[in-house]
Give the backbone structure.
Amino acid sequence: MGGADRPAVPVIVGPTGVGKTAVAVELARLFPLTVISADARQVYRQLDIGTAKPGPDLRAIVPHLGIDVVAPGERYSAGRFAHDATMWLEEVRRAGREPIVVGGTGLYIRALAEGLFREPPLDPQRREPLRAWAAGMAAAQAAHWAARLDRGFAGGGRQRAARAIEVALLTGRPLSWWQREARERGVMRPWYIHLTLPRETLVRRIAERVDRMLEAGLVAETERLLARGVRLDAPGLDAVGYREVGAMLRGTLARSDVRDAIVVATRRYAKRQETWFRHQLRPAPVWVLDATGSPALLARQISERWRRTSAA
């Protein structure tokens, strides 16, 4: 795909807890920018504590788009994000500001940067029995079959595994092929800044982050949502943190075990994110940056390199 006619946009990615928001805030002190959030959980209103959503104080420093877009329970897809973010990019530029994409949801970022792939036609009559068969599998078994049928399958849960199985068996080509070969054109040229941390540092930050969420009232936030009629398995509440608190409220997880359960689930999620970002961002330029330094230092490094890149 050509891209010289599309504007280049910095995209800060990395696992949960690595410090993406803090770096974006420091960048905003250096030049006027607006963050386009690429986070599949922060799009939901009222899910504030469990998504580590930037609060009003941070958003006063740097405007954010892509936050508080839909109500809990409403589905929000990568395709919808790409459509909305395309308008947000134009809005930011019209305001004379610099857009920067920040987030950890790889599929959202790919949809915006590379374009969505055209869904292959699937025969409904053949699809239904196949869907029922896949639904009866354990998550690990579904992932095993998906990986056998599609060498490019990157994981991501039972639903994605079932979809990979359906596409491979019904079209004769793996989903990864369709995603690569039948893709529409993206709306920007991404310049990726992939923030990383040594494993022990990230593990410590994740634990500290979970402690802050629980102290800030994650359990009460979840209870308020349930009182308003939001189901525990609704889009938004099926995220790490809310899922474990929900298990506690149902009585299937002891209150004393909630903190550790969230930490373990978050660490697993961060590992999946790291795997995705290591393998799925090419061929666009990717700058892997150790995020051990202070957010202000990292922001200066990014700003200086961005200026050199833009001038080249």
In short: Residues 124-181 form one domain. The mean pLDDT is 90. The chain has two domains: 8-116+184-311, 124-181. Residues 258-280 form the longest helix (23 residues).
